[in-house]
């Protein structure tokens, strides 16, 4: 046993806390929103702003190990609690800024989409000249679920666009035939284990489904993607679960982005793998032996329940081999992830 502190109060923290409870740990949540679905299943809730260092330090004093479920936790206040924090905050620092992230990954031999940093309208027009359209303008920081992104089909589109007053990056549109993610866990001793890669479908920038097995042409790209993901984990001396998203293209895997945490495209591992991403994250940060990541069924599909889709979710319980997860969120706003279902195919 012992106490695990989780930074962030969302569903990833909730599922982490549930896995931690199974292993006999207690969890405390630190988050800046009053409604926390992670706190619903935990012992204690520190409802504080991220920059309240006194509160953060008091929280840390009560925890044996600390981790995060939210990738935009401000990094500076974390140096004071670094001795108990896994993964190391350098992983957050790298992943929180799309420019840092891409440069870092290129340094390890990875291939991101063509990109240019944008500070002005002229930069954007020049970028479209250089790498072409269509493309996507993305804020460098704080984006998730496709928020802070604008698709640009021509320089005329760009002329009509009002730039956000935060740093952005323009990315060439990747003509992928599929998307997939590599999810790995790395232990204190440097051991790495991978889950099978799911094929992911996004709708309006939000993950809609993850399916296993991935198609043969995606599977053919997984090994190269795993090599890159492993070198990212090693370079960061990473401890815990790390996710890398890829576009599968005719030129091989293109790195999209990383998430230094458990990931929505790994929710299928709760019922579909010997050890789930949540349990292995807890095992890794607590210095326990890692669990087997093998897939346990021939076919698996995870579908997100977004916004109103969750309303009829209970009806799904009458279907065989269907597992429903509801996150306990009160308001089903459009685009909000309310839950997910995992279907296990036995043959
Ligand atoms: P997440 O919730 O995964 O962190 P995010 O807001 O960081 O999302 P991205 O992963 O950058 O968003 O983009 C979301 C989706 O938009 C991608 O999974 C992909 O479907 C599409 N997309 C993003 N960038 C590109 C690109 N350069 N070319 C083609 N499609 C793209
Ligand atoms: Mg992202
Ligand atoms: Mg993404």
Strand content: 25-35%
Globally, the shape reads: globular
Q: Which CATH first-tier class of the largest domain would you pick?
A: Alpha Beta
Helix-strand pattern, N to C? EHEEHEHHEHEEHEEEEEHEEHHEEE
CATH superfamily of the largest domain: ATP-grasp fold, B domain
Rg from alpha-carbon coordinates: 20 Å
Category from helices, strands and their pairing: alpha+beta
Distance, first to last CA = 39 Å
- What is the residue-averaged pLDDT? 96
Ligands present? adenosine-5'-triphosphate, magnesium ion
Q: How many separate helices?
A: 9
Largest sheet: 9 strands, antiparallel
Estimate nothing, just give the exact number of structural domains.
Answer: 3
GO cellular component, one term: cytosol
Protein name: N5-carboxyaminoimidazole ribonucleotide synthase
Keywords: ATP-binding, Ligase, Nucleotide-binding, Purine biosynthesis
Subunit structure: Homodimer.
Please characterize this protein's 3D structure:
- The protein is of the alpha+beta class and 347 residues long.
- The chain has three domains: 83 residues, Rossmann fold (3-Layer(aba) Sandwich), CATH 3.40.50; 59 residues, ATP-grasp fold, A domain (Dna Ligase, domain 1, 2-Layer Sandwich), CATH 3.30.1490.20; 168 residues, D-amino Acid Aminotransferase, Chain A, domain 1 (2-Layer Sandwich), CATH 3.30.470.20.
- The protein contains nine helices and 17 strands.
- Strands 9, 10, 11, 12, 13, 14, 15, 16 and 17 form a nine-stranded antiparallel β-sheet that branches. A four-stranded parallel β-sheet has the order 3-2-1-4, sandwiched between helices. A four-stranded antiparallel β-sheet has the order 5-8-6-7.
- α1 crosses α9.
- It is globular, with a radius of gyration of 20 Å.
- Adenosine-5'-triphosphate binds next to β14.
- Catalyzes the ATP-dependent conversion of 5-aminoimidazole ribonucleotide (AIR) and HCO(3)(-) to N5-carboxyaminoimidazole ribonucleotide (N5-CAIR).
- Its EC number is 6.3.4.18.
- It catalyses: 5-amino-1-(5-phospho-beta-D-ribosyl)imidazole + hydrogencarbonate + ATP = 5-carboxyamino-1-(5-phospho-D-ribosyl)imidazole + ADP + phosphate + 2 H(+).
